[in-house]
Input
Amino acid sequence: MPALALVTAVALLVLWFPMRTLWHQQSELDSTASQIASIQRQGQSLSAQAKSVSSKAAATLLAREQYQLVSPGQSLIQVLPGNGSGYVSANQGDPGFQPLVSPLSSSSLTSDPALATTSKHAASESFLARFVRTLEFWR
Output
């Protein structure tokens, strides 16, 4: 009986290791085959796209739609969307046309009232106190 168990164990080991290796190799082959099939489908799709834009009319349409190119002698005009009222003021469109903000009124730009009070307080400090606070950087 122990001899039969020993023979069975040896037979299982002899068969298990090669079968396990073959099983792993087969799973890797299946994975690689599915990747190859996917790449072939992508290649067919790209070939179809290349054929669809191979004509001059398709290339011209693609150049106009995606790259905003025009034929020689033509000009490109782009209409930008407005603000909904139909008329766009020069000051509304470009922030460069906005008037400059005075540094003294910068406290009105802060939304935090605590910051506004500290800046007003800082303006009332003496020159020496502001100078010392500036030199605190060196500590």
User: Anything to note?
Assistant: Residues 1-71 form one domain.
